[in-house]
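Input/output pair, single chain:
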Amino acid sequence: MATKMLLEAGHDVELLGRREGQIQGIDIQNELKNLQPGEIDTVTLYVNPTHQEEYKKMIEALKPKRVIFNPGTVNPDWMEVLESKGIAVEAACTLVLLSTKQY
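Output:
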């Protein structure tokens, strides 16, 4: 649903996940190989904190402007690390942000 709403709102989307597949015709990648630091504006997480470890270095290296921690993904320790690196963090629901034009 988030991918569909992001696309409908005119956002470019890159998908990262543990399993191969497609959402809205976009391939789910297990590595973001072709992206340079600063190319990604926002990372929106749907990964529970117990599975975030494998993504931390990759996401931090992207140097996004912000990371949205959706319900069930909030990780205060990592949020503090991201903020110390100048990356804004938000504990929010991407779907709500999009539907209320706050994204």
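Helices lie at 2-8, 53-62, 76-84, 94-99. The chain has a mean pLDDT of 95.
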